[in-house]
Design a protein that fits this description.
This protein has ten helices and 18 strands. The protein has helices at about 35-45, 80-85, 85-110, 130-145, 180-195, 245-250, 270-275, 315-325, 370-385, 415-435, and strands at about 25-30, 50-55, 70, 120-125, 150-155, 170-175, 175-180, 200, 205-210, 220-225, 225-235, 255-265, 280-285, 290-295, 300-305, 335-345, 355, 360-365. Strands 1, 2, 8, 9, 10, 11, 17 and 18 form an eight-stranded mixed β-sheet that branches. An eight-stranded mixed β-sheet has the order 5-6-4-13-14-15-12-16, sandwiched between helices. The model has no long low-confidence stretch (mean pLDDT about 95).
Length: about 425
């Protein structure tokens, strides 16, 4: 019987802090995911008093619900970034993507975080022949900026990585990795606590008020029944940003759901036969799937855009099953042990951003690539709070924008679901023609 909760939450410790938050702190961080915890680690190590607040239980959000894939990519190609920001900034954007991957892997290794790190590589699979060509062109553009371990895999060699005839080739990123996301989050939580940060769950921040009558010009943070006075505030809420707290950010971050399932235990040999390369897999189609073996090697975990708007995991399950068997027909009839959903945070630029609005700092907008980028940008946000006059990352240049029709309710995403599905149908028709020629 399917459990509609994250597979990663099984048999994992749950942190709670029964104390009340202090009435004063140097810095309040709103959001206890990867971003908030990483910022808290750096800030607390610098000697600042840090309070981290989360509206839900610690570890409720996307940081423990994701697929556990560590990568360095952006949704924006090199050519698009050059057109938008100029060549120098575009180069910095893609260099820092690689830096984020290195940062998070080093964070894990240097602190002995037991999160089942596997440096297994990631294969991006071409849904149609044009996608293979586009990936090759973008790879060459990226390698002209900075070397990284990646190469194209022709269709004739795909069987070394995956047991399906569905794709037209792919691009292998050899330095990418996989983790158990809940264990990574818990390890970062322990680092933050050990550094001296105070972390509280179940405390919703309702208002952030700028104080102008005092010498310090700080803030009052109204959180549940508490009021905390502080010098600075960092918003680290990404896909869980609420208009009730920050209309500014809620108009600039789209909460896009992702739906994930794990199969029942099908055994190590069967999983290895389906994924002989042991890589994480990500597709290029619009309603893309991403999938991997679970750390134990006995199950397949698959995530997909079952819908662009919120639906229940129960509603998403038939679509996930269909996507799974579309890739692996032999999986027909295999049971699903867990199915769940969570929100990613998308910016209109499809790039993350570190910035400030009315004195409140923010780091968010990972667009589905947050497992590596969120810890990195949380660290950079902490450096910015400690030294505001210095630029610490190129993502201070990728300013958040909005659209006139968006006020925090992404009503238009339901239409995107239909459009994406239509595009995949057209692409599927073209790919079938290509296979038959």
């Amino acid at each position: 019987m399917t459990q509609f909760s994250p597979y990663w939450w099984q048999d994992q410790p749950q942190y709670s802090n029964d104390n009340e938050p202090p009435s004063n702190a140097d810095i309040v961080v709103v959001g206890a995911g990867y971003t908030g915890l990483s910022a808290a680690i750096t800030l607390a190590k610098s000697g600042a008093s840090v309070v981290v607040l989360d509206a839900e239980d610690i570890g409720f959000g996307a940081s423990t619900r994701n697929g556990g894939m560590l990568g360095s990519g952006h949704k924006v190609s090199t050519a698009q970034a050059i057109k938008r920001y100029g060549e120098k900034t575009a180069q910095e954007i893609h260099k820092e993507a690689n830096s984020s991957l290195k940062f998070t892997i080093n964070l894990i290794k240097n602190n002995n975080i037991d999160c089942e790190l596997q440096e297994c590589g990631r294969l991006r699979t071409a849904w149609i022949p044009k996608h293979q060509t586009d990936m090759a062109n973008n790879m060459n553009d990226l390698k002209s900026i900075e070397h990284f371990d990646s190469h194209m895999v022709e269709k004739s060699s795909m069987h070394k990585h995956i047991n399906t005839e569905l794709y037209f080739g792919g691009q292998l990123y050899e330095g990418h990795a996989a983790v158990h996301p809940r264990k990574l989050h818990y390890g970062m939580l322990q680092l933050a606590l050990d550094a001296g940060a105070k972390v509280f769950g179940g405390i919703r921040v309702n208002n952030i008020e700028k104080v102008t009558e005092s010498f310090d010009n700080g803030f009052r943070v109204y959180a549940s029944a508490q009021v905390i006075s502080c010098k600075k505030v960092l918003m680290a809420t990404n896909g869980y940003t609420r208009a009730g707290l920050s209309k500014y950010l809620a108009r600039r971050i789209l909460p896009v759901p992702s739906f994930i399932a794990t199969t029942e235990d099908i055994g190590i040999e069967r999983v290895a036969s389906l994924l002989p390369g042991g890589n994480c897999m990500v597709e290029t189609r619009k309603r893309f799937c991403y999938y991997r073996a679970t750390p134990c090697g006995r199950r397949i975990m698959l995530g997909t855009r079952a819908a662009m708007h919120p639906i229940t995991p129960q509603q998403a399950l038939p679509t996930i099953k269909k996507m799974l068997t579309g890739i692996f027909p032999s999986m027909e009839g295999v049971g699903i042990s867990h199915c769940w959903t969570g929100f990613t945070g998308f910016s209109f630029s499809n790039l993350p951003s570190l910035g400030e609005h009315k004195g409140v700092y923010y780091a968010l907008g990972y667009c589905g690539n947050g497992v590596a980028m969120a810890p990195y940008l949380g660290h950079k946000a902490a450096l910015k709070l400690l030294n505001p006059k210095k630029q610490h990352t190129v993502f201070e240049k990728t300013l958040l924008n909005t659209k006139f029709y968006y006020h925090g309710n992404p009503w238009f995403l339901a239409f995107s679901s239909v459009i994406y599905r239509g595009q995949d149908i057209i692409d599927g028709y073209l790919s079938n023609r290509a296979k038959n020629n």
